[in-house]
Amino acid sequence: MMEYSILLQAAEDYIRACYAELGKTEQEIHNRLADIRKEIDLTGTYEHTFEELEHGAKMAWRNSNRCIGRLFWDSMVVHDQRHLEHPDDICAALLDHIGKATNSGKVIPTLSVFKPAGPVSKGVRIWNHQLVRYAGYETESGIVGDPASVPFTDICRDMGWRGKRTHFDVLPLIIQSEGREPVLFPIPDHLVLEVPLTHPDYPAFGHLGLRWYAVPIISDMDMVIGGIRYAAAPFNGWYMATEIGARNFADVNRYNVLPQVAELMGLSTASETSLWRDRALVEMNIAVLHSYKQAGVSMVDHHTAAAQFQLFEQKEAKCGRPLTGNWNWLIPPVSPATTHIFHHSYDNTVVYPNFFKKEESTSFPGGF
User: Tens digits of per-residue pLDDT, 190-248?
Assistant: First the structure.
């Protein structure tokens, strides 16, 4: 009975907030809540209309405390794929998401939502961290590829997948539906737009052979709307350059290429007082920004992103909505003190709808 009341309360809180933003009347809210109560009484859960789902997904992005790019929350395109159950059909929808979101480089913020688990359904689960991600292989001479992907790569290999064992092998999709055995699907090469990295001032940079994919499509987070937990709701915006240049390639537990960048720049790495890491880090990010611009692929630098976030703050204040944010995630990993975000504090209260890591969302009592 407690679960019933919690779900009903979560549904009511969401419907009232959503319908108010959509300009609906009090009578429409009353009628919808009456229908939801009946549905929960009969089935133990309820189903969102597409309008509720679409706006809830946008609200989830708007409420994402870790995201600096929330100014564009209302531009998200939402694909309702809740009717799909067969892994082949789910895979086709995911590949369609990759293609449409990539949009030949003019990236479109997109979310695809699949069937949630419920009292009589186990729903859809996507095992990948991102729909597009590079493999990582343990070898006697060290890791080839992305160290962060080694565990998932091992799972793919156990399921029969064989990569080329390069630093940039695109991993397959692993899809699970209704609790059945997971199924592996390779991603066709033509769907993955990749950007080779070069530098405008250091021709030797291109000899490093670095590249990255165009669109980050997060697929391992749960979207919780009105008490319903969507375990398969991959979504994307576009990259901020530092995500690639200051994290994926710079972190020592990832590709760790800063020593190579410093070497081609002619910097001595013998002493930290030379700040070789900082100088190499800046040039790494310049290379990323330059390369994506040359390739015609959407990307934002961290200074522009911070200015956009400031505009988002102002718009939220005008709408009378309290702003929440996680300072540790909002500050960029390069020159954070040059942005206004560094000098502000933010309320990290979690507001629903929202996105959660798997271990966070499973503790939510109203999310089936």
Answer: 999 999 999 999 999 999 999 999 999 999 999 999 999 999 999 999 999 999 999 99
The verdict on pTM exceeding 0.85 is yes
pLDDT band at 361 (very low <50, low <70, confident <90, very high): very low
Which residues are paired to 218 by β-bridges?
Answer: 130, 235
Q: Which amino acid is residue 328, in one-letter code?
A: N
Selected catalytic residue, list 243, 276, 283, 313: 243
What CA–CA distance (Å, rounded) separates 237 from 109? 4
Q: Is 156 a catalytic residue?
A: no
How many C-beta neighbours within 10 Å does residue 254 have?
16
Residue 121 β-bridge partners: 118
12 catalytically annotated: no
- Reply yes or no: is the peptide bond before residue 353 cis, omega within 30 of 0: yes
Quote the CA–CA distance of 194 and 216 in Å, as a whole number.
11
Residue 238 annotated to the active site: yes
Q: State residue 358's pLDDT score.
A: 81
Instruction: Quote the Cα angle for 41-43-47, to 5°.
Output: 100
Q: Which two tokens stand for residue 286?
A: 């310049």
Strands 77-81 and 110-114: parallel
Catalytic entry in 32, 61, 62, 67: 67
| pLDDT above 90 (res 49) | yes
140-179 pLDDT, tens digit per residue, is 999 999 999 999 999 999 999 999 999 999 999 999 999 9
Catalytic residue among 32, 70, 133, 229: 70
Q: Which of 61, 73, 212, 238 is catalytic?
A: 238
Is 283 annotated as catalytic?
no
pLDDT digits (tens, 9 = 90+) for 76-114: 999 999 999 999 999 999 999 999 999 999 999 999 999
Q: Is the pLDDT of residue 366 over 50?
A: no
Q: What is the mean pLDDT of residues 114-141?
A: 97
CA distance 127 to 220: 7
